[in-house]
Design goal:
- By secondary structure, the protein is of the alpha+beta class.
- The protein is 45% helix and 14% strand.
- It has a four-stranded antiparallel β-sheet, covered by helices on one side. A two-stranded antiparallel sheet has the order 5-6. Strands 7-8 form a two-stranded antiparallel sheet.
- The radius of gyration is 32 Å and the shape is elongated.
- The N and C termini lie far apart (105 Å).
Length: 298
């Protein structure tokens, strides 16, 4: 392949990369090739378990593929300096070994594998200053900024936030200072606004921290054999049970739960008949019908 020209092979390579990565790949230019790839760990699209992400820029010159492309990283989150340098170094080494062959697809796959291998929370919890645990049930991650915390530490901080609400400026003073009121909750590290999905998960954490009387009753009712279930599954079940108990109580208070049947009597009055009474009446009726049938046969 002659250098300094965009061959059919290179065009097909770029089209193949675009077809594989679709919206995660942006073709900046066809020649010399330059693409941007959104790197996310392979976690079955569960963003709560993605602790790193980045945008990889692969920029080749007119000598490609006889000279390796250059690499840079944009908008990295959770990666850290060490893993950032390792990612670029390993891509550069792999590209140097592929000189003479088209390599964009290979490099994109390698970058995805590397970001998946790097998918670990880095640093320490900003509350307790201890190393992050890797167990998903022990961590809470904000998907907007990728900052992670120990779940218990974050729950304690939420409780403190509720007990010590911030003093906000009066509305007229906020307008005079030309800024809108701050959201009720911000990331404790970077002050970014949590996504709506994060706010929903935060509400669940609050219910776990203080489930109320219904939640405590549900927790006490868990059989001892079920307490062997992993904590993250028990927490999910507990949240669901508390929610079901709350909805049941609300519907019952509004008459939406039928526990007795009102039936009209010929006299025009109402009599409350319980389910057990109806069941007994049905059984008696069935017995009487059987006796009448036997008499007729005789």
């Amino acid at each position: 392949m002659e250098s300094g020209e965009c061959s059919e092979e290179i065009l097909e390579e770029i089209e193949a990369v675009k077809a594989v990565y679709f919206n995660e790949c942006t073709v900046v230019r066809l020649w010399p090739p330059c693409i941007k790839l959104e790197l996310n760990p392979l976690t079955a699209e569960d963003v709560t378990q993605q602790f790193v992400c980045a945008r990889l820029v692969i920029k080749a010159n007119e000598q490609y593929p006889h000279e390796p492309p250059a690499f840079s990283v944009e908008h990295a989150k959770g990666l850290g300096d060490k893993r950032h340098s390792s990612l670029l170094q390993r891509l550069s080494t792999a590209a140097a070994a592929q000189i003479g062959d088209t390599m964009l697809g290979f490099l994109c796959q390698l970058a995805t594998d590397l970001i998946t291998a790097y998918n670990e929370p880095e640093g320490v919890c900003c509350f307790c200053m201890e190393t992050m645990a890797r167990e998903p049930s022990d961590l809470f991650k904000l998907t907007t900024c990728y900052h992670c915390f120990h779940r218990r530490c974050f729950q304690d901080w939420l409780a403190w936030q509720d007990a010590n609400p911030r003093e906000e400026l009066p509305i007229h003073e906020q307008r005079q200072r030309n800024h809108a009121p701050e959201p009720a909750l911000l990331c404790p590290v970077c002050r970014s606004v949590p996504a709506d999905t994060d706010l929903d998960r935060i509400d669940q954490l609050k219910r776990l921290s203080d489930p109320g009387e219904q939640g405590r009753a549900v927790e006490e009712a868990i059989p001892s054999e079920l307490r062997e279930i992993p904590s993250e599954l028990r927490q999910a079940v507990r949240v669901q049970q508390v929610e079901v108990a709350r909805v049941f109580t609300r519907q019952q208070s509004r008459g939406g739960i039928v526990t007795e049947l009102d039936t009209r009597i010929n006299s025009g009055t109402y009599a409350k008949v319980s389910g057990s009474d109806l069941s007994g009446a049905h059984l008696c009726g069935s017995s009487t019908d059987d006796d009448n049938s036997n008499n007729n046969n005789n």
